[in-house]
């Protein structure tokens, strides 16, 4: 199994904090995804472009699999997004971007550190 797919399935989804996740290349290619989760090519490019032009994400949010999420905060490498009681975290690492959605009652303060830790592990492995 591919390292990124293993990460999505066992680390992100396996944490029990996220309902769906994907890893997107900096070229917008879908590198790995949880079952049934596939942001469109336009959505993937908007995610990548969002790190180049944060003002667009702040103003319009991002769509993930057809659902609009609103900008909450940016930590320097991570975008925090919200959609009603649910949310998403988008973390840019060296060569890709991890996108992970969570569903209430899970909230960003408990999901964020887990995804940040997974991102750190991937960075140290060269991803």
Automatic annotation (TrEMBL):
Source organism phylogeny: Bacteria, Bacillati, Actinomycetota, Actinomycetes, Streptosporangiales
Species of origin: Nonomuraea longispora
PANTHER family registered for this protein in UniProt: PROFILIN
Name of the protein described by the UniProt record: Profilin
Keyword annotations: Actin-binding, Cytoplasm, Cytoskeleton
A GO MF term: actin monomer binding
Keyword Cytoplasm found: yes
Pfam families, per the entry: Profilin
Family assignment from sequence similarity: Belongs to the profilin family.
